[in-house]
Amino acid sequence: FDTLDDLDIAGRRVLVRVDLNVPRDGAHVRETARIERIRDTIEELAGQGAKVVLLSHFDRPKGKVVPEMSLRHILSAMEDCLGRRIAFCPESVGPTAEEAVAALPPGEILLLENLRFHAEEEANDPGFADALARLGDVYVNDAFSAAHRAHASTAALAERLPAAAGRLMEAELRAVIGALEHPQRPLMALVGGAKVSTKLAVLSHLVRKVDRLVIGGGMANTFLYAQGHDIGRSLCERDMADTAREILANADAAGCRILLPVDAVVATEFAPGAASHAVALDAVPADAMILDIGPQSVAALKAELAEVKTLVWNGPLGAFEVPPFDTGTNAVAAEAASLTRAGRLQSIAGGGDTLAALAAAGAADDFTYLSTAGGAFLEWLEGRELPGIAALAAARARNS
Ligand code: 3PG
């Protein structure tokens, strides 16, 4: 795909698809990474004298105007983060939006209203894409985290204007493509989370790509159950046991070593500060739940980490949001951070929960790359083609 280097920008109206779907309480944006990380693209375009028009969705208003989901509410957080004034237009298309773009001086930024107030956005509607295309001369997609959606602003619009990836999109793709397609090996993936059923496609794809696959979180219980362990009252998808055995067999055939917990931290209630203790896997009490990996598992993972060159992390190892069940995740995250700092590991992580867990562990700043994507990162790990990326590739093929 093309990048900003390939576009003729000066004095032109540039439609930039960004992802401003940030966690927010009222006017307070809790996590500003998605705003901060579009700075390079915006500054570069504005610096070249473009009229920068930002397009984004926020939340899931389902085609209705939902005032609490207006992008107006994050405007001041954006101005604070980016350190510049941003104009706002209460429409996303039509005469009001066209006038706002026309009135925008070169080098300035305009944010249009939540695209999902129009049902046509999620429908990838050609007419809506035409209406968006009338607002710009060129199109830049800087929203890797929305690239798994085939929506008008991520797909159809790219067919209508000269199109390129923004700097954040470029960085995201370089990091994720580098990690899975030409990594320094050994390559380890660490996949946690509650359910095998939601990450089945990720696990199936990764066993064919990585050298070692760590399975953690509630998912690990299903694998332990499938191997015949007694897991008491632990979260487990018993109907996924055959699938789990199949994944283990496929990993074996592909030469991927699966690393499951070798001990566990158990408790009889899931509450902050609940009494808990570590047990061997053959000693999980019938009335207890596995809520974290145990100290031997942590030691084993640290030893494995010391041997690998690349780590891709998605999902916590235990019920990290309720201490003390964050202990295993914190310890492994701290080790990955320290190996990265020492230049011995390339570490890439993605997913809202994962980034929150790494931040809580004090490990986030040391990771080589943190993706701003949640769902799109997972779909990438599933080996799926992302419509937003495919649209950029098609635009390049069309132009050359
Ligand atoms: C995200 O937050 O992962 C993206 O903004 C996509 O949001 P969506 O899941 O509502 O499409």
TrEMBL record:
Keyword Transmembrane appears in the UniProt entry: no
Entry superkingdom: Bacteria
UniProt-listed Gene3D superfamilies: Phosphoglycerate kinase, N-terminal domain
Signal peptide: none
The keyword Transferase is annotated on this UniProt entry: yes
Compartment(s): Cytoplasm
PROSITE patterns: PGLYCERATE_KINASE
Catalytic activity field: (2R)-3-phosphoglycerate + ATP = (2R)-3-phospho-glyceroyl phosphate + ADP
Residues engaged in binding substrate: D19, L20, N21, R34, H57, F58, D59, R60, R116, R149
Main localization (coarse): cytoplasm
Pathway the protein acts in: Carbohydrate degradation; glycolysis; pyruvate from D-glyceraldehyde 3-phosphate: step 2/5
GO molecular function, one term: kinase activity
PANTHER family named among the record's database cross-references: PHOSPHOGLYCERATE KINASE, PHOSPHOGLYCERATE KINASE 1, CHLOROPLASTIC-RELATED
Annotated family: Belongs to the phosphoglycerate kinase family.
Protein name per the record: Phosphoglycerate kinase
Source organism: Marinibaculum pumilum
